[in-house]
Amino acid sequence: MLELSGVRAGYDDIEVLHGVDMHVDEGEIVALIGSNGAGKTTTMRTICGILSPSRGEITYRGEEIHSKASHEIVERGIVQVPENRDLFTNMTVIDNLLLGAQTEEAKADRKENLDEMLELFPRLAERKNQRAGTMSGGEQQMLTLARALMGEPDLLILDEPSIGLAPHLVQEVFDVIEDIHAQGMTVLMVEQNVQQTLKLADRGYVMENGRISMTADGDELLEDEGVVEAYLGV
Amino acid sequence: MGHLVTSVAPLPLQGGGLGRFIDPFVQFLTDITNLEPVLLQLLAFGLLLGGVYALTALGLTMIFGVMDVINFAHGVFLVVGMYSVWLVSEMAGISPFLGIPIAAAVLFVLGVVVHVLTVEPIIEAPQQNQLIATLGVLFIIQSAIEIVFTPDPQQVELSLGSIQVGGVFIPLGQFYALVIALGTMLAVRAFLNRTDLGRKIRGTADNRDGARYVGINVRRINYLTFGIGAALAGVAGGSIALFQRFDPFTGETYLINAFVIVILGGLGSFPGAFVGGLIVGMIQVFGGYYLPGTTAQVLIFLLFIGTLLVKPEGLFGGAEA
Questions:
Q1: Which of B211, B215, B319 sits opposite A90 (nearest CB)?
Q2: Cys bridge to A23: A3, A31, B58, B220, which one at CB 3.0-4.6 A?
Q3: CB pairs under 8 A between A and B
Q4: What is the ipTM of this complex?
Q5: What is the rounded average pLDDT for all residues in chain B?
Q6: Integer Cα distance of A80 and B214 in angstroms
């Protein structure tokens, strides 16, 4: 479904990704783990067209997408929940959700999807006319996730979806991810909660210094001594 | 001391009930009608001028709010609006009032062209680069107008006259300009709040990266915003041409005041542009009457500096469009 081959990217003259190779198959949950500064978020931003790779290739369903603009990538069905949320903080919850539906298909289903999101996230329904910037961190995270789902993605990219959330909200986020995956959505996620993520994931990649250093099934990674020592604090 | 209306009879509603809402209103009417005629006249002129100033600032604040670009070409866009209305009325014999939407259309196209040629290639560059580029556009268009139409002042042939309301003299040219300004502001507000495109523009103003993540074509929003901002300058310039003589340099004074208004009201804020326009209009009219020389303009600049020092985010701060 999604394939990265030798992707190099960075900010200005600083290269962060030094040739990333990875792939995501239809219907999978794939985890990307690694320490801070390894290049996980840069990888996500490059896939979504926020950053342009200096070298390498990204293909989605056989089509090259690395030279496409971010809106063209969303049109093809890839939507991201960014690490720092990037909500429209001066706009209401409803406006944020409506702005999530940009493709023709998503616009056609906008009303039903809006009702569905307000049902899936009752806190958002309670605050639907409130400005997004005035909500708690947990509520904002729910809104970011719901906004992405309004775009009816085929591939949902989650960058640290549980960062800064209280434990009960973390579980809620993971439950939602499991639910949407059960409905057939493919998920690529970066997450600090490595144990929970690898339990959920079909496969995982370990990233170090801008390169993929290891790949295996989620369960295998959970049992790998190096991963356990580096990321599970054991 | 002559009074316009000697008194307003108090309404029978007193004390509780509706009276507590109506009494202050009655008091206000009583106070205002007891003002000296000259004060009422100045208030009227301040309102008329402030409304037009607000309109001149609207496009500027919109472009800044959405794109983070300080558009110095805005002043000459106003002038192109003035000349467009003058040309269609003089050459084609079309009513200057119909010339205003034509001016808006001309400016929309000009705005998109200027954006694609000068701003878009450096949109990610530091802000001063765009500022200098748009300043260059100002000089180029200003010189072109001067070459084609000479620096001589022009005037739209329109004898609208004036009316008197309760002893207050209201020039109809300025009154129509105020009505157009208010109508345009309400229309833009409705467009931004009630249409899909308006929501996308507000979203892009709020968070550009967020707009990219949800799939908004930010490049398209940029040139549409620049075009709409220029079209608003066209409406403003066309409205000014209804009551004022103009030349290729008329836009400069309006541009400076528009910057003050945008800073005072809050960069990117529409309500701020309206309130800021009224404040600057009032200062100019009252200052012009009571203070010597160009002291009013000095006061406006002091207000500008004071705002930057005390409340740099402006009265309605933030990037709310």
A1: B319
A2: A3
A3: 71
A4: 0.89
A5: 86
A6: 8
